[in-house]
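Look at one record.

>
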Amino acid sequence: SAHVAVAHGGAFVAGKAQYADVNGDGKADLIVQGSDNRFWLSESTGSGFVAPHMVVAEGGTFQAGQAQYADVNGDGKADLLFQDNDNNFYLSESTGNGFASPHLVIDHGGSFQTGQAQLADMNGDGKADLIFQGNDNRFWLSESSGAGFATPHLVADQIGNFNFGQAQYADINGDGKADLIYQGADNHFWLSTSTGISFSASDNLIQGDVGNDTLSGGAGNDTLVGGLGNDVLMGMAGNNQLDGGDGYDIAVLSGNRAEYTVDFIGDTVKVAGVDGVSVMTHVEALQFSDMRVSTSTGAIMVDAVQHGGVALAGKAQYADINGDGKADLIYQGGDNRFWLSESTGSGFVAPHMVVAEGGT
């Protein structure tokens, strides 16, 4: 049953409390960042936390997202990286029962914005690296040296402008290196796997939200999933997996009038052409250029108006749910239903609903 593990004064403020293994014993400890930017550590006992003790002080006042915890020097203990208002980064290594005095390790210029800087082991050497997402959605990597970070170099470029929460890092293919997953404003998910020194070009992954979505994969091998609502899935060139989900869904093939071979295999439709093979499930109509064909009757249909969903920070998260060493995608819908898409190593399978919470 639930019990009080430790008490801190003051009122709740999102982002003040975080959890990381500071002493390397395999248990997550509690670090609370005060309004005055003093940091208080409560080590885990396994069934709760010890009384908090002050371990380091940074200047200024609390802002959510300025403090992050990860093992920067590879000793198995979480260190504190603090990003100040002018994008100077200060590292305080874990001593096992606190943190060392902060020292400047890198300067990115500009001003602080929550979420632009994240820590992840991108090259698989056991030390957390710094990835910085610029306002122009270019990504800059600074590898950890153990005592600081290397000069940043450009590793990926996404269109559009920075929005908090669209970029996240997790080991999708199980090779020990953190990959980049970018969630577009239209809820396209783009995977760029880590090469150890950069990120590969991305292929489109998934998925629509509740409502009527238009999903376009573009070139490459795509997995598009409509979810609820009446959706348009456009895999375009490449070998694609298209799942319409619920509703009346339309799969749009390449816009030119090329020849296609269409096979109906149970509830699955396989369409092969010069630009790739698309395998479709839960799709009610195929559209070839300006002609639409029902997958059930063969009748030609007229176009329908579609509306796409939009990305919201925090809806998509990544964790190894099935214990295979690869991070899976968990998507929280606007109705608080949770959809799981297990990692295949190069993308994700079609989402399936795994739990529902009340509210929105």
User: Anything to note?
Assistant: Residues 306-355 form one domain. The chain has three domains: 12-200, 205-294, 306-355. The first strand starts at residue 17 and ends at 20.
